[in-house]
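Long-time lurker, first post. I've been practising inverse folding by hand and with some scripts of my own, and I keep getting stuck on stretches where the structure tokens seem ambiguous. Below is the full token string for one chain I'm working on. Before anyone asks, I'm not after the true native sequence, just a reasonable design that respects the backbone. If someone could post their per-position residues I'd love to compare against what I wrote down in my notebook.
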């Protein structure tokens, strides 16, 4: 696989104003807490790859978290790659990053009560 790198320029003033990503600094702690979920978390990571990227993976591990999303290292057959997943909104704290991670990994089915009632009425 050939990987081409492009050079980007950064203005000196922008570099001076830059601040570290607070969530990235807490990434190790967030990942550790996520890993404590064991096999349930592993299965959720694999399901996420299939659901959002259409990739069936044998192994998936979270390798980084920052304020705008997270990265997974996945193994599919003989190929190993990193996948990026974005949060819906910028995380402003460890807590908000973990909430968004859990929302992505363990999505809740949101169905309006009215829809359920209509389904029930149609079945009767």
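-- Answer (accepted) --
I ran through it position by position. Result:
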């Amino acid at each position: 696989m050939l990987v081409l790198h492009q050079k980007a320029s950064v203005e000196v003033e922008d570099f001076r104003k830059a601040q570290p990503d607070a969530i990235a600094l807490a990434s190790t702690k967030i990942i550790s807490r996520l890993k404590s979920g064991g096999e349930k978390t592993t299965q959720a990571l694999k399901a996420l790859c299939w659901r959002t990227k259409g990739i069936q993976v044998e192994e998936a591990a979270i390798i980084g978290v920052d304020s705008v999303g997270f990265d997974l290292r996945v193994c599919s057959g003989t190929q190993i790659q990193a996948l990026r997943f974005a949060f819906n909104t910028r995380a402003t704290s460890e807590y908000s990053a973990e909430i968004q991670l859990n929302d992505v990994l363990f999505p809740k089915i949101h169905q309006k009560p009215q829809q359920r009632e209509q389904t029930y009425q149609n079945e009767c």
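A couple of notes from the structure itself: Residues 21-105 form a domain with the Split barrel-like fold (CATH 3.20.180.10). Confidence is low (pLDDT under 50) at residues 115-120. Happy to go over any region you disagree with.
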